[in-house]
Amino acid sequence: MSFRFKLPALLMIALALVMIAAGCAQTAPAPAAPTPATSPTPAPAVKTQTLTVYSGRAEGLIKPIIDQFSKSTGINVQVRYAGTSELAATILEEGKNSPADVFFAQDPGGLGAVTPLLTKLPESITSQVEPMFRPSDGKWVGISGRVRVIAYNTQKVKESDLPDDIFGLTDAKWKGRIGWAPTNASFQAMVTAMRKLWGEEKTKQWLAGIQANNPKVYANNNAQVTAVSTGEIDVAMPNHYYLYGFLQDKGESFPVRNYHPRAGGPGAVILVAGAGILDTSKNKEAAEKFVEFMLSPVAQQYFAGQTFEYPVIKGVKTHRLLTPLADIKSPEISMADMADLKGTLNLMRETGIVP
User: Fold this and answer.
1) pLDDT tens profile 236-247
2) At 141, is the secondary structure helix, strand, or coil?
3) CATH architecture designation of domain 150-268
4) Taking the complete model, does pTM exceed 0.90, yes or no?
5) Beta strands in 266-342 (DSSP E)
6) CB-side exposure of 134: number of CA atoms within 13 Å?
7) Rg of the Cα atoms in the chain
8) What is the CATH T-level fold of the domain 50-146+270-322, as seen in this structure?
């Protein structure tokens, strides 16, 4: 074969190979560049709300239901426990600088004392509560009901021997046999009711008459009922529910029972523990949730079943051991009439009952 034929042939073969290679390069996709890894955007941190409650109610009575509120809502609750009168005085002294969001008082008197510093509650809250358990101005609501009673030692006193109303305890036959707790908020609330029902003069006579019978003084209702059970005293004037706590722990042999005065009067008055929101609260939304929770069926059933108090909303049954309110001759008295704690303390100081 002549070289003139070989060279063109070689060139054509080389050209074909180049074209095949170029075609392959066009059909093969270039490898994708790796996607850089991205970190998920962190969720914004949820700020825990903290609510400050001033409580005139004992820690042992309400801590479980406050803990349940915190668990249900995620709202942290800081509680300052003290006597209702003491906390009312503290709130008045602190004024606009008070750190309190909610005042949970043992009685209407303490709430009445600070009413000017409370904000009006939404109707959605107040309308849940029976009218007898709340004031008409909507500044606070009752959370649970309690009744004043005479607690007596069943081994030393017959119910038939007890007076028709507590004025009868001024009789000299009760000398050295009575216990009372003048610094207790519920006792002071009873005296406030007494002033409204009996007037200042008869109330002063009652205070002086009991004092003349050398009553033993106790710090609280629990101590009074304990003293009745041991025979240290024969009768005392606590709230009704303390007895049932003892019966639950000690059994039916516990030698104390409650007596609802036959003639009613201030010794059978219905008191309420209640709550209001401070006008200066910076956590009003959380405060409203707190009050709403305390009026929920869950909380109301707690008060009825665990602390033996009367519910303040419809649809919650009272404990089977409690005397129905309809069977107690409690006097009709408005919550507004229970608000004058200052006047009561002045009278008790005047008669030397409290310093």
Assistant:
1) 999 999 999 999
2) strand
3) 3-Layer(aba) Sandwich (3.40)
4) no
5) 270-277
6) 24
7) 36
8) D-Maltodextrin-Binding Protein; domain 2 (3.40.190)
